Structures are given as structure tokens and as C-alpha cells.
Amino acid sequence: MVRVEFLPSGRTAVVPSGTTILQAAIAAGLRVESACGGRGTCGKCKVKLVGNSQVPPAPAETKLLSPDQLDSGWALACLRVVTEDTVVEIDEQRDVLDRKVGMAGLLNLETIAPSVKKYHVVLPQPSVEDQTPDWERLTAALPDPRLRFNRTVVSNLPGILRSGNFVVTAVVDGDELVAVEPGNTQDRSFGLAIDIGTTTVVAYLTDLVTGKVVARGAVTNPQNVFGADVIARITYASGRPTKLQQLQEKVVSGINSVIAGLCREAQVSTKEIYQAVVVGNTTMSHLFLGIDPTNLAPAPFVPAFGQMVEVQAQELGLEMVRSGRVVVLPNVAGYVGSDTVGVMLAAAADRLPGVSLMVDIGTNGEIVLAGKGRILTCSTAAGPAFEGAEIRCGMRAAEGAIEGVRIHDDVELEVIGGKRPVGICGSGLIDAIAEMLRTGIVVPTGRLAGPDAGDDLPPLVRRRLRKTEQGSEFVLAWAEDSATGEDIVLTQKDIRELQLAKGAIKAGTHVLLQDLGVEVKDIDRVLLAGAFGNYIKKESAVAIGLLPEVPLDTIVSIGNAAGDGARLALLSAAERARAAMLARKAEHVELSGREEFQNEFVNALSFTK
Amino acid sequence: MDDKLLTAMADLDEDRVLSLVEAMIRAGRTPLEILELCKKGVEIVGVKYSEGTYYLSDLIMSEEILRGVMRIVEPHIVSSIPQHGSPIVMGTIEGDIHDLGKNIVVYLLRSYGFQVYDLGVDVSPQKFVKAISDTGASIVGISVLLSFCVGSVKKVVDLLQEAGLRDKVKVVIGGYPVNQLVKEYTGADYYASDVTQVLDIFDCTG
Ligand code: B12
């Protein structure tokens, strides 16, 4: 086995000698562009080896690369094999592009047309002959004089006009005058794109002039002290207005702490943030707005609102311009929220050719299937197994988490941070089970082989199977190799837990495919949204049946697409209108009412494809 | 032959079970005897399920096989099959739509010989109470997967109290959030988190 490290991400894969760099990159969960599908004809998968390579270039490489390039270490990932530990640089540019895949070039400069507009105006000075009031004087100079009267802005308008000597910049958002600033401030305008997750809140401070993200940050959702999942939060808020307010204030305080950090980092004042676009699951949207979420928990899961909502920042207590608009994108249903609308927007779900499957693998597992001019959505309650919860040695994807497992003569682990393992995270769990299936340690029904069963297993692997009072288990790391001083194991129950989670997602996918009248082979692309999609090894996800059996290169991770969708809606009024259209167009498929779901679910539990 | 049927059932060997059952009918064995053997087989399946050896799909497979057995023996049934204890009312609580776990419990109880009235999902406390008084059930099984809906389970118990039925019926609960604490909070009599416990509980209460 040889170890291949990829820069700049530092991700590694341990692969058999003779593996191509492309395969190693895939094993490391990275995407390398390869238009010809590994035939060595397109030259797109160019990578750079750090240090000298012992392997001579393949004939096709010498055709597509100049001798100079070859000398300085360039190689084609699909052709060059590794025979020793190797460090490879993957074009950073390509990495960035990948993360934007699905954004369909929307973020180019022409389309930057936020609803926030700045007008630099030189007003006539008042005089005894011209006693026009300040508000009327200002609005008369703006393109659309029929702005709504804004008490907050007018409250100190007289001072601002005079301090600027009647040369000011007016900030307008739709029919609202959001702020007035002395002088010309047209080159400075900022907005926030915020993705409120049940566990993590992510915010992007975005320059509304250039469209660039100037700083990004994340914070643990401080509501988590009231319970880890949405049901717990709803239960806490339900029927108690003060508790609801408490949850609202909690999440806002978390966002404000991120905003403070972003402003410091990018040297931006909170007074220069004129708009925020927010996405989140439906429960998070309700709680952020302080709206009673009670009826989301029990069937029939009815939200208090579905449409796009606009409120002033001061109503919510968000640290930005007080009259600035906070826009919460629309939701589709009780468990298909504006975050999913953000994903659809970022992926341009209404304009993708063919059939596209979008999956956000998390506790709620939202699935979108677009094709034949329709968009279908559903949510499957996968549960927290993918986040490492309910798993004996499970943990979040943090330092010390096992994220990769290979089984040959013995078990080889990849650990985040490269140190001794503490536990296993969701992507590691998927990888482990895929390997255990491949080697027969787990049979397709999900049963773990007993110590007596694994006859054809290498002795070192077989030793790891054992039976305890609680059932069978498999030792991933022996106590002496772990950071906890205890064996790190995968139990039969852990496997069952994963089966429930992946079964729910697989069954949901199948019901949507059926409803659209297409089959797995008709799927043109699978887009993985959310952080999990970045880390998951595609071939393992397919091997355990979490993702449908499609060619691996059609599975693409699109990063935090929900947040990207919020950014699009922030940077373009047209995109925001499209978000509203997508939410209306999306047909929600309620799985709990579906006869077939149960059958699909039970069938989807086993590891047969 | 008896042992063979038992093992075939426990091993979920459908073809073998069905051909054995046909042979036994031809040999003049009574449907009752055959069903008794199959029931014992299903019991083993249940135990293996609890141990983690078998999984949901296996349970459903056993259900499928049992249905096949019924198709063969039914025409030969002359006297009615004796029912086990008094009837049981089962359902998933109001606001909750999860029914897989409940269906499994219902299936196991039925194959064990209990008469079960399955009220389905999203069942209101009132409906539970009405079904109990209508059927004269002495056990009610309530499935709850959403922690939010635990309060409604308590309501069933409270309503039973009001209706003066509380002493006549044992309340058994189960599902994802259920534990000792939930049992105490709701005032239920028993709780179960896996199927072998389920059968034990119903056996000694029934
Ligand atoms: C399958 C599933 C669904 C299916 C339900 C299909 C169906 N017809 O039942 C679908 C996809 C429809 C669904 C929906 C929802 N679900 Co759901 N679902 C699950 C899942 C993955 C598995 C449940 C299951 O079937 N297990 C298998 C059965 C056999 O086990 P069991 O039910 O526990 O039953 C056993 C024992 O508990 C016991 N038992 C059960 N009942 C009884 C009764 C008695 C009397 C006794 C004695 C014993 C007993 O015996 C059974 C046999 O072993 C769980 C996660 C999990 N890991 O459990 C979430 C889960 C239950 N769902 C959850 C939620 C929140 C939902 C939703 C409300 C929201 C969502 N999307 O996440 C939605 C509904 C809205 C919507 N539009 O989707 C949460 C509940 C969290 C909480 N704190 O309450 C869970 C735990 C996932 C999670 N952590 O987020 N879900």
C-alpha cells in the first residue's frame, strides 16, 4: 500500500501500489476534472507531483504534456500510477470551480444586480425660497420618489443631510429607503448570506459591488442547549411564548457574534451591511423569526408560513443597518425548508438538462429530483447516525475521527489530523461498512460475521471479530493504538442504525424516481449538498446503497449549496424571484402518507443494490 | 418432520416450509398442529431479530412465509383456531405517522395467537379509549416515535382513568424515545424497546 497526499487540502488516500492518481484522488474524496473519463485523451486531469516520480510518463502523457512540463512534475492523473508514497498538487483553481459546480455561471459580474441600490445625490440647499422638508427634498432626487416613509431613517435625517452639506448617498432597497449617508459611499455596500442549520450557523459577508465573499464564518447554533434536534426545539418552544422568544434571541445572538468577527476580519462596519438573506430548515426559519413552530412537530406537519418573508433587521435584533431588510427565503413544506430552496437555486434545478438528483445528507435528509420539467422534493428522517450520534464510538468529523477505512491483510485507518483515533465520524462509518461488505465481514442483510464465520478472512482481520454480551462487534482500532486507551469498535447495532438512516434516504429517492417515472439509469447527475457531501467517499456511498448506482464521475459535491443559494438571492433580485418560483414549482411528496414507502424502506435496508 | 418444519421456518426457507406443510396436510396432520409449529418457528425468528442476527427484512420475510402457510392450511380448517388471551388494541399515537415498529409488534402478536385490533397511525386518545371499551381489550399497546407526541400518550392513560377503565387495562408503550422515564411520565404499566421483551410482557399480562 502507498500513501498519496493531495495539496492544498492535505487529504490523503492509502491505495494499492499501481493505482492511478485519479483513482487515489477519488478515494480521498476529491474531484479531479476528467472529461474523457480516464482514457488519457483530454489532458484535463493535469496534476503536479511534488518531488521526483519513479514512474516514467505513459506514452499518452508525452503527447499531451511538453517535456518541460513533464520535467517539472506535471502528470495526467488518469494515467500516472503511484508505486510509492507520493505528494500531489491539485490545481487550486479547479478545486474552487468544483465547489461552484451547479451554479451555472450565475456568479459572473453581469448578473450582480442586488436589490440594494446606492444613489449619490447632490441636493439643492434649502433657503427661504425653498422650504421643502428634508424627506421630500431627498426623495424627489431619487429615481423612484414613491418610497415608503421610514421613521428610523428620518429620525436623524436632518443631521445627516447637513453634515454632508446636502451631498449624500441614499441606500434604497425596493420601496424602502434603508439608510442615508453623508458624502459618496457608493463603492461600499455589503450584505450577509446566512445559513441557519440546526447544529451550525454559517454566514458569508458579501461585497454587493463586486459580488465577492469578503469573509465567512460559522458558529454552533446556540439553541443547542435546548436540544439537539428540531423536535426537541419545537417541544421547548411549544405553547410558551417566552421560550419561543428565548430561542429567537439565542440564534440571533449567535449570528451577531459571527457578524462581529466577519466585520473585524474584513474591516467593514455593521452600518455598511444593508441586507441579509437567510435560509434554514423550516423549523429554524420559524424560530429565527420568532414564529410559533408547534404544528411542525406532529402530523400533518403544517408550517405557520411558506412564502418569502421580509422584515427589518431591528425587528429581529440583527447587528446591521437597522432598517436593512432581512429576507428569509420561502420553504416548501414542514420538513423541506428554505435551505433546500437555496440548494435548488444554487444548482439551477429548473435549468439543468436531463434528470438530476440532489441530496442533502443530514438528520433530515432532504431529497430533490428535477427532470421532465418538474421538481419533486421529500424529506426522509435519516436520523443522526451520519453525524456519529447513536453510534457506539461515533463522533463528529473533528480531529481524531476515523474518516477512512481500508481492509486488506489488516485494517488501515485514515484519521482526521493524522493522530491516534478517538472515534469514527459519519463518512468513516460509511467507508468502514463499505469495506466490511466488500470483504464479507458484513453480509448484505447487514449481519456481522461471527468470529467463527470469517474463514477466508486474513488472520489479523479475523481476530477483530468478537461476540460480547451486547452482540457482535468488529474492532477498528485496538486499545493500544487508540487515543482513548480503549478499543474502537463497530457494533451490530451501529450497522443497524446506519441501515435505518441509509434505508430512509434510499427509499425516499426511489419514491421520487417512481413519481417522476424514471429509473436510476436515467439519472444524469447526483449533486451532494452540505458539508457531508465534501467528505463522503462516493464509491463507498454507492457501495452501501446510500447513493444510487450511477457512474462515479456523475456524482458531484456542491458544497454548502444552501448558503450559495442565499448568496445568489442576495446578489441578484432576479435570482431571489427565482427562489420564490422554485418554492412554488417544487412538488412536495409526503412519504409518511405513502403506501409504497414502507416496502421501499424495508427493501432499502439491506446492502444489496 | 416437525423439527424440519420448525428449522425451515426459523431459517426462513420459504420453499421448504411450504412443501413440508403440503406434505403434512397430505399426511393428515391438522392445521392447528402445523400452525403451532410455525408459530414456534416465528418465535425463534423474533429472538434472532432481537439479537441482531435477523433484521427487519427477515421479519417481513417470515410474515410472507406465514401467509403462504395460511393459504395452504386454510381450506382444511374445520374448527376455529383458539385465540390467546383477551384481545389487544394497538396503534400509533396522535400526531405520529411512524408505523413500521407497530406493524412488527402487531405481526408478532398475531402470529403468536393474540387477537389484535390495529387502529393504524395518528390515533387520538379518544379513539384508543373508545376501541378499548368497545372490544373489551385488557391490553393496549401504544407506539410513539416522535418525542413531541409523548404527551398524547399520557392523555390516553388519563382518559382511561376518567372513563373508569384504568384498572381493567394494561398500558404497554414502545418506540424510539421510550424509556423508564417516559413510562413513569405517561403512567403506562410497561415499556419495551425490543421484540422479545414485547412477547414476554404480553404473555404475562395477557
Ligand atoms: C423510517 C422513518 C421514517 C419514515 C416512516 C415510515 C413509516 N411508515 O413508519 C418517514 C420517512 C415517513 C419518516 C418521517 C418523519 N420522521 Co422519521 N424516522 C424513521 C427512522 C429512520 C426509522 C424508524 C423505524 O421504522 N425503525 C424501525 C422499527 C422497526 O423500529 P421502531 O419503530 O423503533 O420499533 C421497534 C421498537 O421501538 C418497539 N416498538 C415500537 N412500537 C412499539 C409499541 C409497543 C406497544 C411495544 C411494546 C413496542 C414497540 O418494537 C419495534 C420492533 O423492534 C427513524 C430513525 C431511527 N433511527 O429510529 C426516524 C425518526 C423516528 N423520525 C423522526 C422525525 C422527526 C420524522 C419527521 C417528523 C421529520 C423528519 N423528516 O425528520 C418525519 C415526518 C414528516 C415528513 N414529511 O417526513 C425522528 C424523531 C426524533 C424525535 N426527537 O422525536 C427520528 C428518530 C429520526 C431523527 N433522529 O431525526 N420517518
Beta-strand percentage range of chain B: 5-15%
Structural class of chain A: alpha/beta
Radius of gyration of chain A using CA atoms only: 27 Å
| CATH class (first level) name of the largest domain in chain B | Alpha Beta
The CATH architecture designation of the largest domain in chain B is 3-Layer(aba) Sandwich
The pLDDT mean of chain B sits at 88
How is the main sheet of chain B built? 5 strands, parallel
Q: What is the CATH superfamily classification of the largest domain in chain B?
A: Cobalamin-binding domain
Rg of Cα set of chain B: 18 Å
Shape of chain B: elongated
Distance between the termini of chain B: 31 Å
Protein chains sharing the most extensive interface? A-B, 26 and 23 residues
Report strand order across the widest sheet of chain A.
13-12-11-14-16-15
The N- and C-terminal alpha carbons of chain A lie at a distance of 29 Å
- Structure annotation, total helices of chain A: 20
Unreliable stretches of chain B: none
Ligands and ions found: cobalamin
Residue share in β-strands of chain A: 15-25%
Oligomer: heterodimer
Protein architecture, described:
- The complex is a heterodimer of chains A (609) and B (206).
- In chain A, 31% of the residues lie in helices and 24% in strands.
- Chain A has 20 helices and 28 strands.
- In chain A, helix 12 packs across helix 18 (561-571), helix 15 (492-516) packs across helix 20 and helix 18 (561-571) crosses helix 19.
- The radius of gyration of chain A is 27 Å and the shape is globular.
- The two termini of chain A are 29 Å apart.
- Mean pLDDT of chain A is 89; it is low at 92-106.
- The longest helix of chain B is centred in the first third of the chain and has 21 residues, at 31-51.
- Chain B has a five-stranded parallel sheet with strand order 2-1-3-4-5, sandwiched between helices.
- In chain B, helix 1 (2-10) runs antiparallel to helix 2 (14-26) and helix 1 (2-10) runs parallel beside helix 3.
- Chain B starts with a helix and ends with a helix.
- Chain B has two domains: 2-76, Methionine synthase domain (Methyltransferase, Methionine Synthase (B12-binding Domains), Chain A, domain 1); 88-205, 3-Layer(aba) Sandwich (Rossmann fold), CATH 3.40.50.
- Chain A binds chain B through residues 231-232, 234-235, 238, 297-299, 445-448, 471-472, 492-493, 496, 499, 592-593, 598, 601-603, 605-606, and chain B through 51-58, 60, 94-100, 103, 121-122, 146-149.
- The complex binds cobalamin.
- Cobalamin sits between chains B (56, 98-102, 104-105, 141-143, 145-147, 172-177, 192-195, 198) and A (229, 231-232, 301, 335, 363-364, 379-381, 383-384, 497, 500, 504, 590-592, 597-598, 601).
